[in-house]
Amino acid sequence: MSDIPKKNNDSERASDIDLAMDINPDLYSAENAPQPGREKFYVYRAAEEYKAAEEATAIADDRASKQDGSKGFVTAKADGAMAGIYDWVKCIVFAISIVVVCLTFVFRLVDVEGTSMNDTLETNDKVIVTNMMYTPRNNDIVVISHGAEYEKPIIKRVIATEGQTLQLDYENDRIIVDGIVIEENYIKGTTFSNRFGDYSVPEVIPEGKVFVLGDNRLVSLDSRYAQIGLIDVKNVIGKAQFVAFPFNHIGYLY
User: Fold this and answer.
1) Within a 10 A sphere around the Cβ of 229, how many other Cβ atoms?
2) Is 15 among the catalytic positions?
3) Neighbouring C-beta atoms of residue 163, cutoff 10 Å
């Protein structure tokens, strides 16, 4: 018995020929037009070519998978100088974006001018300042946008924060915060260096304010003076963490 199924009517015969024409229309040029009794030959020939095409696609997929890990389809890779330039541009744009985000939300690089924070900080020191979700705390070295009447940025040390009691004991040359005499092994000279200022400091630091002093009390313009006064925490740019330059002064500040 033949393995080829017998066609039952002319409509089935026509559909087989149409399928073969869709798969490989070259078989059906005018000179190779199907003749009665030859439909089965063309259908089987078309099926064989279709199978060969599937096998070729599978081989190409396998090669692509081994090269770049793609599966299920053939991928095309960009090649040449333009592709390399495009990759470099993407890397540069990404790097710049990261730097901008960091400088805006994470840290800043600040130049120190003046001697009010000697010997902790010196003129021309470059300091890394963090400012992401920062709240000032005692002993922090902070960068401040401006004082009460002083419009330039300043860098000072936080001595007391909101809600804390503060006593400037000029007679005994000491500072008392919440009833405890604070140790200041970072200062240059004495606690006040005979400079008492002209600002009347409240006994309790008000909400949203901080009291700041420079480490070099002899020359520092700080919260002892009305020009600076108590600092609004909104005007604190961030906390100085690290001296990045010059290299002979590089180091962590705490």
Assistant:
1) 21
2) no
3) 11
CB-based contact 119:188 (threshold 8 Å): yes
Per CATH, the number for 111-252 is: 2.10.109.10
Residue found by looking up tokens 């005007």 in the block: 235
What pTM was computed for the model?
0.63
What are the start-end ranges of the E strands in the chain? Answer: 107-111, 126-130, 141-144, 154-161, 166-169, 174-177, 180-181, 209-213, 231-232, 236-245, 251-252
Distance of CA 74 to the CA centre of its chain: 35
Q: Are 169 and 213 in contact (CB under 8 A)?
A: no
The active-site residue, picked from 156, 188, 209, 239, is: 156
With contact defined as beta carbons under 8 Å apart, do 253 and 246 qualify?
no
Looking at 6, 65, 70, 116, which residue is catalytic? 116
CA 240 remoteness from chain centre: 20
Q: What would the pLDDT profile of 187-236 be if each residue is shown by its tens digit?
A: 998 999 899 999 999 999 999 999 999 999 999 999 999 999 999 999 99
CA distances from 163 to 4, 114, 157, 223 (A): 98, 31, 18, 16
Question: Does the active-site annotation cover 29?
Answer: no
Crossing angle of helices 39-68 and 10-23, rounded to 10°: 40
Residue ranges of domains in the chain: 10-68, 111-252
